[in-house]
Structure to design on (360 residues):
């Protein structure tokens, strides 16, 4: 007899972009423009690589159980907050849900957005309630806060994945102040590409957690390092609920410390993203939604998401179909800002696809 697998796993799991190697082999390209996963085209900082290499000599030892060096580096870079770290922001999300949620509890998610919030909440036995965004993919603060009352945790991504839209700081404050005893998890994975600063909200909103990541601006996606600013009262419970050593390797932690010290690398990335985000929005023949992230949401009507992805793959361009995002119409692509040649190839392929639009 085999034990029964939980029913929530009958639904779809996290949807990944196709591997670039598969596209290269299928269509005969030596290299593929990798614009499907919001990665940093410049890779890790040399300082991060050097720090990780040094840490390898001690990889037979368990990491520092408090991650004190990384938390101190975060305080130096971003300010004296209670910091927690995890195995990607995914690990932080799972830990937060372990702290607050039991079977049957309600978790609220602003959609369309990152699917892992719902997957992780259901894994904890919670009931997920989605609140669709309004026109232009903006969050309606009153409606969202109303849905949050009585819930245990709510997830709000800003700038949002996959739309790129950012929620005004005052709107986030209004939600946090009026959602009762619900914990508001603010996903700031892409905030480094925006001019907005949500950190000051922590001093007045005792139910707010701000999650961030080293995967985007710092180019450490393969190291899986997430971090978050939490209220002081939550720090002890979070630490007890976390995977031992926060689920983070000593090599990854060292790479993150090294990355925090290389301001030139991150400034280069910011400038590159801002310049190309503007150019792609201007030159792409399909409409692009305004974005404050390192990607653009592209409306490829009359094509479906998957049809456009397949057509672009034939031109050696990998982008993300948005068909799997709840509450998002099936005619959108998410296109990351890549290296110069990748962005140029996307624009050429998009023009070719647009020229083949069937007449109305």
């Amino acid at each position: 007899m085999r034990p029964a697998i939980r029913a929530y796993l009958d639904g779809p799991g996290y949807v990944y972009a196709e591997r670039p190697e598969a596209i290269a082999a299928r269509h005969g390209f030596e290299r593929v423009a990798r614009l499907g996963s919001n990665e940093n085209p410049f890779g890790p900082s040399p300082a991060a690589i050097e720090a990780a290499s040094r840490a390898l000599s001690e990889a037979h030892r368990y990491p520092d159980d408090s991650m004190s060096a990384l938390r101190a580096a975060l305080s130096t870079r971003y300010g004296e907050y209670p910091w927690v770290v995890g195995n990607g922001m995914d690990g932080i999300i799972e830990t937060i849900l372990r702290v607050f949620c039991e079977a049957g509890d309600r978790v609220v998610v602003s959609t369309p957005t990152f699917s892992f919030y719902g997957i992780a909440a259901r894994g904890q036995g919670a009931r997920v309630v989605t609140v669709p965004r309004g026109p232009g993919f903006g969050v309606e603060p009153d409606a969202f806060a109303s849905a949050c009352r009585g819930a245990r945790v709510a997830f709000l991504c800003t700038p949002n994945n996959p739309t790129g839209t950012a929620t005004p700081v005052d709107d986030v404050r209004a939600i946090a102040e009026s959602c009762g005893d619900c914990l508001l998890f603010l996903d700031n994975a892409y905030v480094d590409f925006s001019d907005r600063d949500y950190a000051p909200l922590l001093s007045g909103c005792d139910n707010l957690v701000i999650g961030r990541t080293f995967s985007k601006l710092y180019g450490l996606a393969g190291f899986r390092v997430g971090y978050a600013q939490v209220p002081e009262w939550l720090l002890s419970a979070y630490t007890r609920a976390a995977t031992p050593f926060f689920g983070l390797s000593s090599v990854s932690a060292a790479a993150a410390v090294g990355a925090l010290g290389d301001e030139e690398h991150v400034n280069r990335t910011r400038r590159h993203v801002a310049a190309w985000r503007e150019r792609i929005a201007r030159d792409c023949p399909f409409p692009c939604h305004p974005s404050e992230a390192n990607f653009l949401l592209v409306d490829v009507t009359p094509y479906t998401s998957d049809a456009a992805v397949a057509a672009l793959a034939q031109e050696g361009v990998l982008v993300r179909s948005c068909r799997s995002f709840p509450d998002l119409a099936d005619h959108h692509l998410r296109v990351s800002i890549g290296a110069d040649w990748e962005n140029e190839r996307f624009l050429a392929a998009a023009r070719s696809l647009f020229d083949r639009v069937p007449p109305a």
